[in-house]
Amino acid sequence: MNLKGATAIAGIGQTPNYKRATSPDSEQKALLRAIVAACEDAGVDPSDVDGFCSYGPDRNDGTTLMHGLGLKELRWSTQGAGGGGGAIPGAVGVAAAAIMTGQAEHVIVYRATVERDYGRFNVTIEQDHRNSHFTSSGVMVAAQIVAFRTQRMIETLGVPRDAMDAISAVDYLHARNNPRAMAFENTVSLEDIQNSRWIVEPYRLFNCSRETDGAAAILVTSAERARDLKREPIYLLGVAQGAAGPGGVCWENYSEEEFPLAGFSSVARRLWDSSGLTHKDVDVAQIYENFSGPAVGALIQHGFCTPETAAAFCTIENLRAPDGKLPINTDGGCLAEGFVHGIGGTVEAVRQLRGESANPVPGAKVCLVTGGPASTLVSSALFGTKAAL
Amino acid sequence: MELHEAPVIGPIGPYFDGVDAEYWRALNQGEFKIQRCAKCRIWLWGATWRCSACGAWDIAWEAVKPEGVVYSWIRTHQAFAPEVKDVLPYVSLLVALPHAGDKKVMGMLVGDETGLRIGARVEGVIQPASAKTGGQAVMRWRLQRSGRSG
Question: Measured between beta carbons, which residues in chain B are less than 8 angstroms from residue A259?
Fold first, then answer.
């Protein structure tokens, strides 16, 4: 069974991004709006949705959604487990597994975060991990855990912090043109980024993602079915999720290969092997940057550069649309578009490949999406137009 | 930050299923212990119920000389919890333990921060149980000074 091109994204739906704790809708209502919008985009009646896969962990599982959507039958209720946002875009692979094996037909991949209902994301997302080894060390949040890894990338691998600051700068550059972005029409410069206040060294304010209220949904179906629907299908070309051992939650003792980077050593290898593509085939990428340090690690581990060449590769000129060598985060990314636990990158991949991005990359056929760098589980996927099959 | 000023966040102690209970019990008795497989003798950290190398279920806790090397560090400036707002900014560490197979443990730096870098040598000191530590003894780390013994 060949995964490449067997399934496709037929519809996307997204609420506006709201500053944290200001959503006019409850989390579940915002999510229902996003799912209905994805169905309308595809031309599928919401009652014909039969599967769900979220990650994170999202609080709204399939059984809580079927009433509001009027589902005829729920056939697939799943969640990418572990690693926070790392399971997006792997969740699309979970949906594809259901569809390719005939266990579901229209699977919604989704995530919603509304702090109005549930409080600070940076606290709720960590509460299951925070044993007393963390809290007795003054370590509470993802920013701190990931900062340990970036400090070693800087100090031991010699990757200058300019590389991660350039990723922040290109995010803000792209957000200027994106009316959906929290930082729409911003004037944040590289200098502003490098002079911003410390949050946790080595991260300054602009190296860190936002927390945003909102919801997004992606409708995944078979390629055959997608071709009968309203929109041009955006095909899933390859996907991988997981973590190299020794790994998982014992992050203090990851291998020296993995610790300073982003957790993609085995995932990137499987992504390229299973898709038959290489990093040279990628026209544009959505690189999840909860913090911009491990985004540099993600680029290194997917083969775009090495620790030695990271500073030369990660420049605004190379990473910007439309003319960079590898335009990334063309919506503004987690830092500047908004952060609904990273699902925005997969939505933007679809927009970009449809030619509807606020920062279009002309002729883009293949888009890489990476999820959750430096989380205990990560995932990557390749999406493409018909021309990429 | 001096040793007696070092805070913890919230109640601390063994993980709910007890996998690391001996770590915390030993600190309260003045000893720094981590896990070691009783069969293949490999050092294990974080705490586990089964040896990841040989599969043995018999996991020992062994006292480790509290000396280490900074594997990585962060300096927190933002008050992510109310307990730390009086000690900002503060340094948290990952310490590699050469006397325990270079296993890395999390911790907090106390004392002078001069010379903090990856590779710097540190020594462990136990902060006695107090109201500040939620009634639990806690391992802290100091940078070793040249010419100082230990």
Answer: 72
- CA pair distance A67, A288, nearest whole angstrom: 32
Please list the alpha-helical segments (H only) found in chain B. Answer: 21-28
Backbone angles phi and psi of A200, in degrees to 5: -150, 115
* Model ipTM over 0.90: yes
Q: pLDDT-based confidence at A308, cuts 50/70/90?
A: very high
Residue-by-residue DSSP string for A79-146:
EE-SSGGGGTTHHHHHHHHHHHTTS-SSEEEEEEE-HHHH--HHHHTTTTT--HHHHTTT--SHHHHH
Residue where the block lists tokens 């109640």? B11
Q: How many angstroms separate the CA atoms of A283 and A175, rounded?
A: 19
Who's near A248: CB < 8 A, 6+ residues apart?
Answer: A82, A376, A377
Asked if A250 reaches chain B (Cβ–Cβ under 8 Å), the answer is yes
pLDDT in tens, A80-102: 988 889 999 999 999 999 999 99
CA distance B59 to chain A (A): 17
Q: In the CATH scheme, what is the code of domain A137-211+238-388? A: 3.40.47.10
Whether B77 and B94 have beta carbons less than 8 Å apart is answered as no
State how far residue A165 is from chain B, nearest Cα, in angstroms. 18
Q: Do residues B132 and B4 touch, judged by C-beta distance below 8 A?
A: yes
User: Which residues sit opposite A109 in a β-bridge?
Assistant: A53, A218
Which residues from A are below 8 Å from B117, CB to CB? 155
Structure tokens that stand for B148 in this block: 């100082």
Domain ranges of chain A: 7-121+213-226, 137-211+238-388
B40-49 residue pLDDT tens: 999 999 999 9
**B10, B81 Cβ separation under 8 angstroms:** yes
CATH number of A7-121+213-226: 3.40.47.10
Nearest to B92 among A137, A202, A253 (CB): A137
Kindly report the nearest CA distance between residue A120 and chain B, in angstroms: 11
Please state the rounded mean pLDDT for residues B119-126.
Answer: 98
Q: How many CB pairs under 8 A join A and B?
A: 106
Q: Let me know: does A194 contact A165? Beta carbons within 8 Å.
A: yes
